Amino acid sequence: MSIFSAFRNGPAPAAAVEIASGRVSAASLEWRGGQAVVAAHASEPLPDGALTPALGTLNTHDRAAVAAALARVLDSIGRPRRVGLVIADVVAKVSLVRFEQVPSRTQDLDQLVRWQVRKSAPFPIEEAQLAYVPGIRVPEGQEFIVSLARRAVIEEYEGLCADAGAHAGVVDLATFNVVNAVLASGAPPAADWLLVNVAAGYESIALMRGSDLIFFRNRATDADGTLADLVHQTAMYYEDRLGGTGFARVMLAGASGAGARQAGDIEQVRRSLEERLTRPVDAVDPRAAAAIADRITASPALLDTLAPLVGLLLRDRQGVAV
Hints:
Elements: E1 4-5, E2 15-20, E3 23-32, E4 35-45, H1 63-76, E5 82-87, E6 92-99, H2 106-118, E7 128-138, E8 141-150, H3 151-163, E9 167-173, H4 174-183, E10 192-199, E11 202-209, E12 212-220, H5 227-241, E13 249-253, H6 260-277, E14 281-283, E15 291-292, H7 300-318
Helix pairs in contact: 4-7, 5-6
């Protein structure tokens, strides 16, 4: 799913950038004999407090530092002019809305979606940038995955790319593209599966039914309760409200790059998931979707960094749903 795309009628970018709290990363792909390959990758740390992803307020507090780090990253991967941009999940509000009947005209559907999310929007809908894609089809109607962000915040991120000499024609959320990396692999799960994505400053959970998103939630790392609590509550909701009969696969992403402060909690979640669901918890490995050039060392932290970048770059080619 691309939440705010200007590339609908043009070629997909060959490079992706993630601007996150504490770090800017980028990767480019090339194709060798029909196989996607990560041809180049770079990452630069950001000064503390230079950028803080948030929904309602401006995110950049040291624009010069972020733009400089982004320029260095882009230089390292060949200075692409067209990029896809990955941003933190907390920059947007994600909702799953359901309609019994879907208007045939796009304009009418746009108005219906806006009306539906207006009442829960954390800021005036007139200030929002909104996008949606069809979700799962259910007996009660059609679901849509709706992403709502403050237009000024999206323009802020696009402006950072422009300052570094690149046009961000696609802006997308991190966890959506970790999902896309899994779906772009040779054998994505066909039944229900669970993804837990741990990022700097927040944690997200996506429940998938094959290639369809059926539940999404994120929360700030400093919120009340633990990540284990959040996963437990989600699993109960899955069983009680979504007709869940068990996960074919449970996946964990981002843990290697989350920082030492969260390491113990991540291991606790891994163990509790394995005990409760009687299934192993697998790390997301983007190499199932895109090989890594021999010159790049594939550490666990690098794989976590590459997952959303690879997912964004392969989502259209693979026809993934999110």
